[in-house]
Write a structure and sequence with these properties.
heterodimer, A: 109 residues, 3-stranded antiparallel sheet, globular, B: 120 residues, 4-stranded antiparallel sheet
Chain lengths: 109, 120
């Protein structure tokens, strides 16, 4: 059972927009920065979003992050088949003194 | 180009030990904290632990599931991070990744992973 809660799967058509939610508590998302990672099949995870809504320079602006209270959301616009992957949210949990992740969301395009 | 390459994985019996290495290049290794994470077959990501840079004391943090059994260390002269795993359990089976920590809870570069299988 993961500390952060994500939907197991989401799907949308090419060119459309999708959002992936991640909920937690005041000990994690509510008081700490959130990161999002993309894991393409058979590969290592890759950082997509850091500090809730910042993108590394190599990540296209089709990817965005937002946070409100104890929940955070990853948005992907202009979906491509190459976006099919597992997506994970992660943050620090002050109560557990540990980095915690959501269980992952499988995106089907 | 930032590169992280894990090595040392393999098949090991329960109760035995294994040491993983993460050889880094393309950045000033000593300036960064380094973390180890793992992924059991078909499961999600799990944080294993973290070592701060020498500037921040070089201290470590561990997940409760591995505390007392696993030890992270670093050799800045060789740009290598290590994960010493003792008293291995079948639940420790998975792909182990090392990652560069942008800050200790955020990982901006990852290795390709090395598979550890704990089985009799």
């Amino acid at each position: 059972q993961s500390v952060l809660t994500q939907p197991p799967s989401v799907s949308a058509a090419p060119g459309q927009k999708v959002t992936i939610s991640c909920s937690g508590s005041s000990s994690n998302i509510g008081n700490n920065f959130v990161s999002w990672y993309q894991q393409l099949p058979g590969t290592a995870p890759k950082l997509l979003i850091y500090e809730n809504n910042e993108r590394p320079s190599e990540i296209p602006d089709r990817f965005s992050g937002s946070k409100s209270g104890t929940s955070t959301t990853l948005g992907i616009t202009g979906l491509q088949t190459g976006d099919e992957a597992d997506y994970y949210c992660g943050t620090w949990d002050s109560g557990l003194s540990a980095v915690v992740f959501g269980g992952g969301t499988k995106l089907t395009v | 180009e930032v590169q992280l390459v894990e090595s040392g994985g393999g098949l090991v019996q329960p109760g035995r030990s294994l040491r993983l290495s993460c050889t880094c290049s393309g950045f000033t290794f000593g300036d960064y904290g380094m973390s180890w994470l793992r992924q059991a077959p078909g499961k999600g990501l799990e944080w294993v632990g973290f070592i701060r840079s020498k500037d921040f004391g070089g201290t470590t943090e561990y997940a409760a599931s591995v505390k007392g059994r696993f030890t992270i260390s670093r050799d800045d002269s060789k740009s290598v991070a290590y994960l010493q795993m003792n008293s291995l359990k079948t639940d420790d089976t998975g792909v182990y990744y090392c990652a560069r920590a942008r800050v200790f809870w955020c990982f901006d570069s990852w290795g390709q992973g090395t598979l550890v299988s704990v089985s009799s």
